[in-house]
């Protein structure tokens, strides 16, 4: 039976709890708003506050910070879903070995111009998802520290602020993550090896 057929027969049994799917949706949507606004907004400076699109960037950034924090809480408290150790394998010998083996499988497939089979909870995919969550938390955290510094009376000019140097340096990685992660999700969905409703559904 293919993974897709498995998913079809187990339509109501997503690997991910509803609360995981809700915080994932919230985080994904706010990050997409962040990236879209960042392309066209005019940011703040010494004497100007930033335009309406920057205000949207600021507000949805607070939303992203909220959903990132909720995601961490859900990871710590949930009963079902990807194990925390799979999302963050960096300190476990057996997890790192499994990750290395999965990387080899993926590299071999890539060298044959083939997409590796979709495997629920694959060590490589899970480790990348964990890195994605850390990346979004760093973006939201750096934006939040910037906002607090401005509230505390510092100049709103982001250039030269160390925390915004982090924000700018990581910004391109957010694009890479979103395009790679959502792109692979769409490819697997259309190849019928996984359903997007695995993550994008409200069902209980
Ligand atoms: C996860 C949340 C966030 C993401 C993904 C994100 C993403 C981005 C991106 C892609 C840029 C453009 C970087 C560049 O031009 O090199 C940017 C700029 C900026 N962001 Fe964020 N951001 C987030 C949260 C926040 C928050 C909470 C604030 C707080 C106010 C904020 C404030 C800024 C500022 C001041 C700039 C520079 C604007 C400019 O000078 O044009 N960001 N952000
Ligand atoms: C940049 C915003 C996003 C972030 C930070 C993000 C983060 C994550 C994380 C951390 C997981 C693993 C959750 C777990 O195993 O508990 C995950 C899974 C997933 N994401 Fe995203 N995601 C984002 C955007 C998207 C988008 C736009 C799509 C739509 C194509 C998507 C589709 C999926 C799917 C289908 C899964 C489940 C994969 C599986 O079970 O094998 N994500 N995402």
Give the SSE layout.
Layout: H1 3-9, H2 18-40, H3 52-77, H4 84-87, H5 93-111, H6 123-151, H7 162-190
The structure holds protoporphyrin IX containing FE (2 copies).
Overview of the structural elements:
The chain is an all-alpha fold. The chain has one domain. It is 67% helix and 0% strand. It is elongated and about 55 Å long. It starts with a helix and ends in a 14-residue tail after the last helix. The N terminus is likely disordered. Bound molecules: protoporphyrin IX containing FE (2 copies).
Instruction: Please report the distance between the alpha carbons of the first and last residues.
Output: 25 Å
Unreliable segments of 5+ consecutive residues: 1-12
Q: Into which percentage range does the β-strand content fall?
A: under 5%
Number of helices: 7
Q: Specify the oligomeric state.
A: single chain
Largest sheet: none
Rounded radius of gyration (Å) = 19 Å
Number of beta strands: 0
Mean pLDDT score, rounded?
92
H/E element sequence: HHHHHHH
Total domain count: 1
Bound molecules: protoporphyrin IX containing FE
Helix content: 55-70%
Shape: elongated
Structural class label? mainly alpha
List key phrases describing it.
204 residues, mainly alpha, binds protoporphyrin IX containing FE, 7 helices
Brief description of this entry?
The protein is mostly helical and 204 residues long. It has helices spanning 3-9, 18-40, 52-77, 84-87, 93-111, 123-151, 162-190.
